Amino acid sequence: MNRYLVILLRKPHVDPTVVSAHRDFLAELRAQGRNAMNGPFGDGSGGAYLLRANDLDEAIAIVQRDPASISGGWEITVREWQAS
Fold first, then answer.
1. CA distance linking residue 57 with residue 36, whole number of Å
2. Are 6 and 68 a contacting pair, CB within 8 Å?
3. Residue pLDDT, tens place only, 43-63
4. DSSP symbol at 84
5. CB contact at 8 A, 8 and 84
6. Measured CA angle at 40 (ends 35, 42), to 5 deg
7. SS in 3 state form for 9-77?
8. For 11-55, what is each residue's pLDDT tens digit?
9. Complete domains list, the chain, with CATH
C-alpha cells in the first residue's frame, strides 16, 4: 500500500459537532490498518492524517467519506507521501 498525507485546514465556520464524527472515522481507519497516524496542528488551524491506500483514487474515495469532507468545513488536500 502507498501512503497519502491528508491535510485538513479549517474554514471560518466549522461545525464543532463534526469533529467528533471525524475522530470516530479516523479511529475506524486505524482499526482497518489504514490510518498510520493523525493529529491536530498546534495553532488550531486544522490537522493531518497519514492514510494507507492502494492508489490515489482509492485514497480520495476514502477521504470523501470523512465527515470533515462531507461537512464542507475544511479545505482538504491529499498528497502521495514517499517518506523514508
1. 18
2. no
3. 999 999 999 999 999 999 999
4. -
5. no
6. 145
7. EECCCCCHHHHHHHHHHHHHHHHCCCEEEEEECCCCCEEEEEEEECCHHHHHHHHHCCHHHHHCCEEEE
8. 998 898 999 999 999 999 999 999 999 999 999 999 999 999 999
9. 2-80 (3.30.70.1060)
